[in-house]
Write a structure and sequence with these properties.
CATH architecture: Alpha-Beta Complex
Strand order of the largest sheet: 2-6-5-4-7
Shape: globular
Largest sheet: 5 strands, antiparallel
CATH topology: Cyclic Phosphodiesterase, Chain: A
Number of helices: 6
Structural class: alpha+beta
Order of helices and strands: EHHEEHHEEHHEEEE
Length: 194
């Protein structure tokens, strides 16, 4: 079976944010039900697109110019760990991001722009859901349904995500896990008056 490649839009983590999240790793390593996402692969997923052609990928890159042109927060504060979709079925553990509305709007505007360039099922389905800004730090091990979890003893991440750009990333799934390749990086205009 060959490798499968998928495209997504991500805000990369700066070194300080990455270090703040690494402080969670010792706690995460003691969870038998979840495995940590490698530090180098952590990011804020802004929009997941899925498998698309090279021409559609180029159209997505061009479409990102519009949402990146507007005024966005320069940074977002990390908030306590959350379980997605719930503590009873925690498939993903993630650090939340304080969102006074602008970060969610950036995610929603990006999804709309991408949907016009590459209307995949994944991106169209996402248009009907409110944005939930978060950085995935662990995923459930294997394919079994996850057991309920308590996050009461989880350390609180102390840091911020500095928003500087959106990356178009190709994720190639391999037996070792995903390999990421940044195809393009589009600067975000921060703290500008519209």
């Amino acid at each position: 079976m060959g490798a499968t490649s998928r495209i997504f839009i991500a805000a990369p983590l700066d070194d300080a944010c990455r270090a703040a999240l690494e402080r969670l790793d010792r706690w995460l390593d003691h969870l038998p039900t979840h495995r940590s996402v490698p530090t180098a692969q952590r990011h804020l997923t802004v929009a997941f697109i899925g498998a698309i052609s090279e021409a559609e990928t180029q159209a997505v890159i061009e479409a990102l110019g519009e949402p990146c042109r507007w005024s966005w927060p320069e940074e977002a504060t990390l908030t306590p760990l959350m379980a997605i979709p719930s503590l009873r079925r925690p498939r993903v553990l993630a650090a939340g991001l304080d969102d006074p509305g602008n970060l969610s709007r950036l995610m929603e505007d990006t999804a709309r722009a991408v949907a016009e360039a590459a209307p995949t099922e994944s991106i169209l389905r996402g248009l009907d859901r409110p944005a939930l800004p978060h950085i995935t730090v662990a995923r459930v091990r294997g394919s079994r349904p996850p057991r309920p979890i308590s996050l009461d003893t989880a350390p609180r991440p102390d840091g911020v995500l500095k928003l500087t750009c959106l990356n178009v990333v190709r994720s190639t799934l391999t037996p070792r896990g995903p390999d990421y390749c940044t195809l393009a990086s589009i600067p975000i205009q921060c703290n500008l008056q519209p």
